[in-house]
C-alpha cells in the first residue's frame, strides 16, 4: 500500500535527529518517523566530532574527524494527510503554483538548513547540500511549538520571499550567490520591518523642512545659471535626503532583533559598516576581493563568513521574532550574530585574521585540555 493510500505524504531530507521511532506535531500537521526512516543518508561536510571516552588511563576528551559525504535525496519522515496541505499557500498567496505543503516545506527548510520537500515521490528543485540548522538537535524530538496562525503575519513581513532567497543562499555552492541571496532576504525583511516599526526619525515636519530647502536649492541653481538638464537630474534625488540610510535601517532592525548592542563601543559600528560594504561589493561588482582582507585566501574566508552571517540574521529573525520559536539553538544563533558585532569573531573564529586550520587546531587543543568549546 502506498503512503498516499494510507493517508500519509512523504517528507524528503528533513533532519529531525530522531534515534528511535516517534512523532511530533508542527502547526496543524502530524509528522511521524518510523523505524524504517531512521537510517537516513544526509549530505555532510567534513567535520570534527567532540566527545569523551574511558581508557586504561582514565577519562579522556576525544576528537574524531569525519569525512564529507554527498548523501542522497530520500524520505526521512511522513506527514498525515490534512486539508491545509492542498489549500493555497499562506506565505506566498499570490502564487498559484504553491500550496500548504510548500509552506510546511519551506519552514522546515529554514529551520534545518536543508532543502526539504513534502509530497510523494517529489524531486529536489535545489541542490542537496550539507545543512546548518538554526534550531537545536532536540527541537523536533521535544514537541516543537509553532503557531501556524502566525503565517499571515510572516507574509505581511515579506518572509515568504525572504525564505526563498535564504534557501537559494543555503544550497548554492557559489559564495557570490550566497551573499547576493542572503542580502536580498535581509533587505526585504529590513524594509518591511522598518515601514511598520515606528523607528523612522524623519518625521513629517522634518520632511517638510527638507522639501522647502530643496525648493530654495533649486531656485539658487536656476539663478546661478546651472543647466536645466543638470537641475532636472539632481532634484528628484534630493527626496532621499529625508529618508533613513540603508545602514541606519539595518542598525535599527538588528537592535530590535537582539542581534546588535544598544550602546555599542566605537568598534561595533565599524564591523556593521564593513559587513554592509562587503555585501554591497558583491551586489554591485560581483567581487569577493575585500580591502579588509590581506590575501585572496582571506577574502574568500571573510566572504564565506559573511554569507553565513546574512543567513543567520534572516533565519533568527524569522524563527524567533516572526514564528515565536523558543529554542536554545535559535538563541545561540542570535548570540553568534551579536558576538560578531561585539568582538569580530564568528562562532569563536576571528574571520579577518585567523585562517580555518589555525582556528580548528586551537579549538581541538582547547577541548582536549578543558573538555569544552568555550574559547
SSE layout and pairings?
Elements: E1 8-12, E2 22-26, E3 29-33, E4 47-55, E5 58-66, E6 75-80, H1 100-112, E7 117-118, H2 151-156, H3 159-171, H4 175-197, H5 204-223, H6 228-238, H7 246-256, H8 267-285, H9 296-322, H10 328-343, E8 345-346, E9 349-350, H11 356-370
Antiparallel strand pairs: 1-6, 1-7, 2-3, 3-6, 4-5, 8-9
Identify the notable features of this structure and list them briefly:
375 residues; 11 helices; five-stranded antiparallel beta sheet; 9 strands; alpha+beta; globular
Structural description of this entry:
This protein is an alpha+beta fold. Helices cover 46% and strands 12% of the residues. The protein has eleven helices and nine strands. It has helices at residues 100-112, 151-156, 159-171, 175-197, 204-223, 228-238, 246-256, 267-285, 296-322, 328-343, 356-370, and strands spanning 8-12, 22-26, 29-33, 47-55, 58-66, 75-80, 117-118, 345-346, 349-350. Strands 2-3-6-1-7 form a five-stranded antiparallel sheet. Strand 2 and strand 3 form a beta hairpin. The longest helix has 27 residues, at 296-322. The radius of gyration is 24 Å and the shape is globular.
Amino acid at each position: 500500500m502506498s503512503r498516499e493510500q494510507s493517508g500519509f505524504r512523504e517528507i524528503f531530507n528533513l533532519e529531525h535527529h530522531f534515534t528511535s521511532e516517534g512523532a511530533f506535531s508542527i502547526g496543524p500537521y502530524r509528522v511521524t518517523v518510523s523505524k524504517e526512516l531512521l537510517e537516513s543518508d544526509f549530505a555532510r561536510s567534513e567535520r570534527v566530532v567532540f566527545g569523551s571516552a574511558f581508557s586504561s588511563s582514565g577519562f579522556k576528551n576525544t576528537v574524531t574527524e569525519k569525512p564529507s559525504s554527498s548523501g542522497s535525496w530520500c524520505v526521512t519522515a511522513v506527514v498525515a494527510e490534512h486539508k491545509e496541505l492542498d489549500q493555497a499557500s499562506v506565505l506566498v498567496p499570490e502564487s498559484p503554483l504553491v500550496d500548504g505543503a510548500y509552506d510546511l516545506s519551506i519552514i522546515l527548510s529554514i529551520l534545518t538548513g536543508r532543502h526539504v520537500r513534502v509530497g510523494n515521490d517529489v524531486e529536489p528543485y535545489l541542490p542537496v547540500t550539507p545543512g546548518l540548522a538554526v534550531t537545536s538537535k532536540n527541537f523536533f524530538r521535544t514537541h516543537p511549538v509553532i503557531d501556524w496562525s502566525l503565517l499571515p503575519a510572516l507574509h505581511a513581513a515579506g518572509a515568504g520571499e525572504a525564505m526563498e532567497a535564504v534557501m537559494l543562499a543555503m544550497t548554492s555552492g557559489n559564495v557570490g550567490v550566497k551573499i547576493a541571496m542572503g542580502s536580498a532576504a535581509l533587505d526585504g525583511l529590513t524594509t518591511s520591518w522598518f515601514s511598520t516599526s515606528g523607528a523612522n526619525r524623519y518625521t513629517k515636519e522634518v520632511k517638510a523642512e527638507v522639501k522647502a530647502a530643496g525648493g530654495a536649492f533649486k531656485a539658487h541653481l536656476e539663478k546661478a545659471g546651472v543647466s536645466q538638464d543638470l537641475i532636472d537630474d539632481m532634484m528628484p534625488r534630493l527626496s532621499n535626503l529625508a529618508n533613513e540610510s540603508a545602514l541606519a535601517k539595518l542598525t535599527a532592525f538588528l537592535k530590535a532583533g537582539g542581534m546588535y548592542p544598544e550602546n555599542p563601543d566605537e568598534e561595533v559600528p565599524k564591523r556593521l559598516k564593513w559587513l554592509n560594504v562587503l555585501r554591497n561589493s558583491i551586489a554591485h561588482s560581483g567581487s569577493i576581493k575585500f580591502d579588509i582582507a590581506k590575501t585572496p585566501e582571506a577574502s574568500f574566508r571573510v566572504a564565506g563568513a559573511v554569507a553565513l552571517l546574512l543567513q543567520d540574521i534572516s533565519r533568527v529573525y524569522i524563527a524567533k521574532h516572526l514564528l515565536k520559536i523558543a529554542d536554545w539553538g535559535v538563541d545561540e544563533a542570535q548570540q553568534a550574530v551579536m558576538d560578531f558585532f561585539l568582538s569580530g569573531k564568528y562562532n569563536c573564529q576571528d574571520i579577518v585574521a585567523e585562517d580555518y586550520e589555525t582556528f580548528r587546531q586551537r579549538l581541538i587543543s582547547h577541548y582536549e585540555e578543558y573538555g569544552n568549546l568555550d574559547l
